[in-house]
Amino acid sequence: MRRNLRVAAYAVCVRDGQLLLARSPGPGGVPEWVLPGGGMEHGEDPYDTVRREVTEETGYRIEVTGLLGVHSRRLTGDPRIGRHLDHQALRIIYTGEVTGGELRYETGGSTDFAAWHDLAAVPGLVRVPLVDIGLRLWRERPPHGRLPDRPEEVAP
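Structure (tokenized):
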């Protein structure tokens, strides 16, 4: 089975009760909202990755104001049905503050729209799970930068 590791950096940017999100075409053509960010290039520092990706996807320049945590997800294919991939996504999630630029949309990239959304409206959006993970890290600020992902890890 072929192995693949993708390291990416994302920003949770909250301003005046609103969250900055980018829109991705999504599977099956159904658009879904994502945290601005993306894949780290070889030799690039994750701090620089998140700043570059936010600018590419939203037009804004940000100051990285904190490290919220790291989230890892592993997906394995089933060789019996023709899926021969073992993929691990390592996502570094920062907080960011907009310091310049103008809101605009990415052209020719992985997203096609960017917008601010009221925090209360986020649960009603079609979004990738990383949006909820990022918001949970932002709200809870676990000192170890990790959310429990198994029931036995949840504190009583």
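The chain has two helices and eight strands. Confidence is low (pLDDT under 50) at residues 151-156.
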